[in-house]
């Protein structure tokens, strides 16, 4: 069985597997009891490997990578939470039970089938031995001549290859853990005195905003781009009328399709965090995050607005946030929109009402995570009059009349349409908030955390996401003039592309920070 959806076709199942020929030869040479034990064990292992192949298919479709047997088991809880928000609790429980039973049943049935085949081989040992010899000869011949059907080699050793790949990946993961812990201890700005961190931003309200799933696909895919680029052009013009200018470029994200926290942490830590182990290592370290640099100076109040956080969030300490506003602390009384706990427009208005709009002795540094463009992109909120937002109750009618997740979750074309609408909504919410509440001292940095899943972005999509810096003070954009970014909110296709992990150091350097590496 292949481990990618694109290869799941009939020709894959007419191949002659070397493992079956070798297995038959081994079973024919054994007495009854060892034969039954080895057959049952091998069959159960084959059933488990088939389950692993299904996990590989799912991870490739949603996250653009294979399943990691060391790190990824805990992500299944997140998958279950996502299904619960998208399809309801009862459906999720039934599906979860069904999948667990299917995995167990697969191992048991394949084990029984393998024992049955082994016993048949033993009862017809002479014929089975000749058959194994002929099959082995055919396999060697097919390999020697490279014989194929519809581009698929007739001779296969796929099962052994999959086991080898997963074994190497597990070993590499364990080695990477040790090496990355050493890398995280080296920090270009780790020992920089507070007075020498971002001196050119003193007095400015700095806002770092991540837009969920805002990837290059939104701007360049011909089926999605027209609506999104129109929104970016309209928003650029509206911001210019309000006195704001913008520059935009590209970052290559450390994640794809999901695991947004890996994109957030990579951007803000300056380290390449592409798996859960690296994330845990960094969160437990004293490696300087970009947001914590502002807290370290003592010259900013630092807050996080996280409408997607619905439980304790110890990462607040690593990011240097004096105050955190989660899904339950923004006063929202309206309905959820699938996974998203509240519309972005409401979250931004709550930020204004509870944080940004209040008088303070210090400027403000904020980290905001916008969630309305999170898959499954149904239903999607609509913009309402800012003065009518209230406690969000008015969104109930919008949510009830919106598209249901079940209507698009397996439809690639409709998913693309709704994805594009969700990005337009999120960008519009953010830029209208800036027009309405931004000041001469506001500096907004906003970017995507990752590309949407491959069903929307395609199997060959890059991992690039747009990033923009917006400000009224022309000096703020003059500081990044040598970055050669595109004017406006829409980066040109040939605008510079950097690794997401490079942004922290580039930003700190551009705004006057002095490197003072901690080795």
Automatic annotation (TrEMBL):
It comes from the Bacteria. Keywords: Membrane, Transmembrane, Transmembrane helix. Gene3D superfamilies: Alkaline Phosphatase, subunit A (3.40.720.10). Coiled coil: none annotated. The keyword Protein transport does not apply. The keyword DNA repair does not apply. The chain crosses the membrane at residues 12-30, 37-55, 93-119, 131-156. This is CDP-alcohol phosphatidyltransferase. It comes from Streptomyces lanatus.
